[in-house]
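Running this now, will post back.
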Amino acid sequence: MIPYALPKEPDLSKEELELRYQNHQLGHQFLAVLNAGVKQISELNQSVKQGFTQLNLGQQAIHHALLSQSEQIHQDLDELKIAFKEGFSDVKASLDMGMAHIVAQAALQREELKQGFSEMSQLLENQLKTRAQERYLDGKLEYERYLQHPDESQFLIDALAYFTESLEAYRGNPFCHLHLGHIYQKAEKPYDLEKAQEHYQLCATYAKGIQNDSLTAMGYFLAAWVSYVRGDVEKAIELGEKSIEYAPGDIPEAFYNLAKYHAHQEEAEPALLYLGKAIRDFDPYYALKANLDPDFENIQPARDAFFEKIKEEEISHWTERLKALKA
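Update: finished.
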């Protein structure tokens, strides 16, 4: 276990603490993008054309290789179990929800997910949903262009139109709902948090249909955050618990967010339970994050006592280690 001791905070005013917290968020958002997002998005830029070319060739091969449409519709979908384990877990406590769609988009370029897209495309084609398939790929391409050129909102508008048209033909593509959730969460037209939450929840629902627990967990995780932002904290807790139920090790931030939601409700016991899980199992840095998070001020006495307990545990652990080395 990595040694960790909580920093002793100087006496600061609430305004100074809030400023430090804002600076902390900006700094670690930048680090998270550098360490987890930019590298993958750079790879995305290099591979996107090749990826779509391969996907189109694959679709043609699938089309000519079909022996029986009914057999293909009922084929085993086990290959659609896609792992997001290195998507959110890599950035851990540095993740800022403002960049969640960037991290998720970078994760979607992993080889396992490209295979998933290919399998989903095959399913769509087998069910005579070629129009839905084509519009989804068009929307995905336009959304990726928007990420590369965020000053060009037309790419976002076009992506929205394509994804909407795709769902009109085939509603059951969880990836399409995931992208629409990202689009509606953006702080510009067509900003609509209610629709964002709806699509994230539909992403989770339809991901269950392809037996993809990781994607199900991501849908619930993002829906929970949007619910919290909208002020429905009880619903956020409900959705957050579903996220860790389906993939308890995939998204460390899900445990921290559940702690945050309970702290917002002044529920110290469950808040510290989830916070302890985030700190001990994933990243000690969550302790500092909670120390600066305004929601945890609602349970400050319990939080501070909890931090003292963690410090004592660490001191005891390393004292025993030193004794063992000297023996």
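The chain has 14 helices and no strands. More later if anyone needs it.
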